[in-house]
Write a structure and sequence with these properties.
By secondary structure, this protein is mostly helical. It contains 8 helices and 6 strands, in the order αββαααααββββαα. The strands form 3 sheets. The protein has a two-stranded antiparallel sheet with strand order 1-2. Strands 3-4 form a two-stranded antiparallel sheet. A hairpin with a 2-residue loop joins β5 and β6. The longest helix has 28 residues.
Amino acid sequence: MEYTIIDALIVLKPKAEWSLDGYDYSGLTWLDKNQTKPTEQEIEEKLAELKYQGEINVYQEKRKLEYPNWEDQLDKIYHSGIDAWKADIKKIKDKYPKQTMDATELQKRKDAAIFNLQKRDYEKAVARLAQYELSAGLTDKDGKHIIMPIAVEINGERNPLVVQDETERAAAQEVINNTPQAVIESVS
């Protein structure tokens, strides 16, 4: 089963009010006044846990498919006794033993999810910084403007587009500065 941010939100923040535009965290608008918005990291960790739990629960589905229907089971008990019925059921249980979540494996999966989140964020930040600065424009190898810079000020105030560009670039640089070296090396 494929788990989504919606599944994680339902488990993390039951009955919370929110809306989602698209399929990822950037499209999440938090509307709930009683519960705090989970971080993207919390959601990624919960998704890793849900996926792991789903893999563990596969044994239950396999057992269900092999168990006889209730009528046949009751018939077996009536005609052959409870011990014969138990023996038949035990074969199925032994074939598909109960699985439990291993704390070390769960942590490993959560760590991998966070690593992948950091990698995605790093790649987005690098791509954002690779874009030309609006206030500088874009030049070719000879220094000729391909795209003219936009005005830094309009009517004596800073151009909102330049401010937004600078804010986004600063946020991207902050992501890069805080990215662990192992994540950076995995991209290079």
